[in-house]
Amino acid sequence: MAEAHLQEALTTLKDSGVRITPQRHAILDYLVQSMSHPTADDIYKALEGKFPNMSVATVYNNLRVFRESGLVKELTYGDASSRFDFVTTEHYHVICDSCGTIVDFHYPGLDEVEHIASHVTGFQVRHHRMEIYGVCGSCRQKDTHEQL
Q1: Which structural domains are found in the chain, ordered by start?
Q2: Which residue in 43, 74, 94, 119 has the most C-beta neighbors within 10 A?
Q3: CA nearest 4: which of 38, 27, 33?
Q4: Using one digit for the tens of pLDDT, what is the confidence trace for 79-118?
C-alpha cells in the first residue's frame, strides 16, 4: 500500500514538472512510511547517514515543494516545530499533551461539518482542521508507575 502511495506521489510530482532527485525520493518515501508526523529535523536525522551532503534546508525546501503539490500537510501547533503528514485520506489528529505523539483519527461523520458551517454562515468553506488533545496510553502508564 505504501509503495502505491509513493509511486502515485512521484507521478504527481513528475506531472507538475518537479525533478525527482535521490534526496527528494528518499524524503518522500520517509514521509509515506512514517506514521509519526515527523518534523523536518526528524527527517534530516533519519536520512543524514544515507545522504551526508544533504542539509536541513534541503529537507525544508523539499517539504515546501511537497506541500505546494498537495502531497503533504504542514501541521503547526503553537511554538513547536511544524510536523509533516503525507496526505492519503482526510483525517483528524489526536495529540498527547505530555509527549507530543500525534495519531491519525478517521471519523467520516465529521465530513458534513463543512456543509453545515457553509449553510449556517454563508461562507464558502474550503477546508477544516480538527485536533483532539489528551494523554496517550504510554504517558498515562508512565504517570501511574511514577506515582507508585
Answers
A1: 1-88 (1.10.10.10), 89-148 (3.30.1490.190)
A2: 43
A3: 33
A4: 678 888 887 777 788 888 888 888 888 887 777 888 899 9
Q: Which of 137, 22, 127, 12 is nearest to 68 (CA)?
A: 12
Exposure string over 123-135, b if 16+ CB within 10 A, otherwise e: eeeeeeeeeeeee
pLDDT at 12 over 90: no
- 3-state DSSP call for residue 71? coil
Distances (CA, A) of 97 to 38, 52, 68: 17, 34, 29
Determine the pLDDT at residue 87: 78
In terms of Cα–Cα distance, which of 81, 94, 79 is closest to 131?
Answer: 94
Side by side, the strands of the sheet bearing 131-134 are 102-105, 92-96, 131-134
Q: Dihedrals φ, ψ of 92, to 5°?
A: -115, 175
Strand partners, 134: 96
pTM for this entry: 0.73
